[in-house]
Amino acid sequence: MKVQLRAQAEELNTCVGRVQELVQAIQTSGLQISLPAPYHAPPSTSEPPCPADTE
Fold first, then answer.
1. DSSP conformational letter for 1
2. What pLDDT, on a 0 to 100 scale, did the predictor assign at position 8?
3. What is the structure's pLDDT at 35?
4. One digit per residue, pLDDT tens: the chain, 55 residues?
5. 13: left (phi over 0), alpha (psi -120 to 50) or beta
6. CB 52 within 8 A of CB 41
7. Do 12 and 18 meet the contact criterion of CB atoms below 8 Å apart?
8. Short-list 30, 52, 29, CA closest to 42
C-alpha cells in the first residue's frame, strides 16, 4: 500500500511540475487566458454544504 501511495505521489508531483511549467510559459509569453469563474451556490443556513453535482 505504501509503495502504491508513493508512486501516486510521485506521479502527482510530476503533473504539478508540468502545470507549473505551462503556467510559467504562458506568463512569459504574455498570453492572457480568461477562464469563466465556477458557479458556487451560496451556502444554505439550514443544510450542510454539498457539491453541486451530487444534488
1. -
2. 93
3. 73
4. 889 999 999 999 999 999 999 988 988 888 877 777 777 776 666 666 666 665 5
5. alpha
6. yes
7. no
8. 52
CA dihedral 19, 23, 26, 31 (to 10 degrees): 120
What secondary structure letter does DSSP report for 44? P
pTM, full prediction: 0.49
DSSP characters for 2-43?
A: HHHHHHHHHHHHHHHHHHHHHHHHHHHHT-----PPPP-PPP
Cell of 12: 502527482
26 Cβ neighbours under 8 A, 6+ residues apart: 33
